[in-house]
Amino acid sequence: MRDMNDIDLARYPLDRPDSPDWQRLVNDAKTSLDRDGLFNLPGFVTPEALDQTLSYVRPRLASESFHHSRWHNVYFKDAVDGVAPDHPALQKVETANHTLCHDQLAETPLDRIYRYDGFIRFLEAVMDQPQLHIMDDPLAGVNVLEYREGEALNWHFDRSIFTTTVLLQEAHSGGVFEYARNLRSADDPNHAGIADLLDGRLRPTALDQAAGTLNVFLGVNTAHRVSRVRGPQSRIVAVLSHYDRPGMAFTDAERMGFFGRTG
Fold first, then answer.
1. CATH number of 25's domain
2. How many domains is the chain partitioned into structurally?
3. Is residue 11 in some structural domain?
C-alpha cells in the first residue's frame, strides 16, 4: 500500500483497514447512508492537496475545459413509458458547466486518490460491494466540473449505484447541492411528486459543504441538483467514478455529449 499524502489519514485512517478506527469510520458512513442517503467526510483532502489541485485546475478550466450545456428532463430521456409527453414531470431544465477530463488530470491529487487502494477498499466496505473498479475510460474516470455565474447542474436522477464527489471550491453565492430523498421507488415512479419538485411546490433539502469535503451519495431514486451559481466565484467539484464491474467505459456518443471529444 503506497503512501498517500493527499488524504487526511490521521482523521480518516484509510491506510489502517484492520484498525478499530477504520471500522468505526465505515460504520459511521453506513449509518449516514441508511439515515440520509449520503455521507460527508469534511477535510478529507488535505489543505496542501486542495491548494495544489486548485492551482492546477483553475488555469486549465479557463483555457482547456469543455463547455457542456444541454436541456433535459430528470430522466435524461426523450420519452418515458406511460407518461404523456406534456406531463409536468417531463418538463425540460437546463444544465451547464465547464469540464476537465481524466486525461487532463493525470498525476494530480485527484488521480492519486481515485486510484488509491485504501480508498477503493473503504468504498467497497461502506457500499457492501465485493469489489469496485476504476473506469476503463481515458476521459470519464475522474472529472472536474466548474459552475460559473448563471450555470447549474439541474434536477436529475443518477444511473450509477452511488456518486462520489470532492468539493474543491465553494461558489460565492448559490451553487448549493439540493436533493429530494427517495422521491421515487422501484414500485412507485411518483410522477406527481417529481412535478411538484420541478414546479417548486416541494422543498428540497440543502447540503452544507466546505471545500475539501468528500461526499458519497445515493442518487438513483433521489432527485438532486446544484442550484444556479451567483457571483464572481464559481463552484468547482470533482467526480470520481468507481463501478462494481471491470471494463466500464462511456460510448463515443456519451463522450461527445459530456466532453466534446471521444479521446
1. 2.60.120.620
2. 1
3. no
Q: Rounded to whole angstroms, how far apart are CA atoms 219 and 243? A: 15
Please spell the DSSP secondary structure of 183-224, one letter per residue: -S-SS---HHHHHHHHTT-SPPEEE---TT-EEEE--SSSEE
Pick left, alpha or beta for residue 212 (phi over 0 → left; psi -120 to 50 → alpha; otherwise beta). Answer: left
Instruction: List, for the chain, all residue ranges whose pLDDT scores fall below the cut of 70.
Output: 1-2
Q: What is the largest CA-CA distance in the chain?
A: 55
d(C-alpha 57, C-alpha 180), whole Å: 31
For 59, the domain range is 20-259
Over the stretch 135-159, which tens digit does the pLDDT of each residue have?
A: 999 999 999 999 999 999 999 999 8
Q: What is the pLDDT of residue 2?
A: 55
Question: In whole angstroms, what separates CA 57 from the centre of its chain?
Answer: 17
Taking CA atoms, 183 is separated from 60, 95, 237, in Å, by 37, 20, 24
Q: Supply the pLDDT for residue 53.
A: 98
Identify the pLDDT of residue 3. Answer: 74
- The reported pLDDT for the residue numbered 1 is 41
> Among candidates 239, 158, 156, 161, which has minimal Cα distance to 204?
156
Q: What is the DSSP letter of 136?
A: S
Contact 262/210 with Cβ under 8 angstroms? no
Secondary structure letter of residue 90 according to DSSP: G
Task: Report the alpha-carbon distance of residue 230 to residue 175 in Å, rounded.
Answer: 7
C-alpha cell at 67: 463547455
Q: Find out whether 142 and 110 touch, Cβ atoms under 8 Å.
A: yes
pLDDT of residue 61: 98
Residue 159 has what pLDDT? 87
pLDDT at 82 (0 to 100): 87
Is residue 7 a contact partner of residue 119, using CB atoms and an 8 Å limit? yes
